[in-house]
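Note to self: keep these together.
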Amino acid sequence: FRSGRRKIIDITVGAYKPKGKAKVHRYLKLTLHPSQFHAGDFEHFKWVFDTLMGDITYSGLYHMGKVTYLELAVDSLTHKQHSFLPYRNYVTKSKIWKEPGGHLGTTYVGSKDSDFRFRVYDKRKQLVDKGKAPFTKVLPHTRIEAAMRRLGVAPVDLIDMKNPFTKLLIADLA
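Structure:
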């Protein structure tokens, strides 16, 4: 779903048959890109969604649907990536991705298969590498993302979710 040239929402409808099960599982995947929203975009999307989907309304999904994956991000405009060490208690798998040429890239706290994982990277570099203009001229621009899988909560209940960034600890390397 686009608003002008901006991609604000992805909608995927599909079905799969879980291994060993007779019943086919149907799903609707709704991916929102709130940083791309402008005034009125969301209200327009809800109207289009309700018009196209008939019995499945946005309000119904909001109250009865299940969020299975969520990414939240915060930006630091004061701390350069790799000037601090992010860690979590009881996490045994973390890594720093090495880019071609040996430069340090994204730091991952937690394994790729875990339900909860942090990523720390240079957001400005990522945008420039993709040919996009950085949205701030302030340096540094370090992005910290929390990725959570298998949440199983209704969107209406996300407001009660604890702040995942309180689980991330930071050691200053200076």
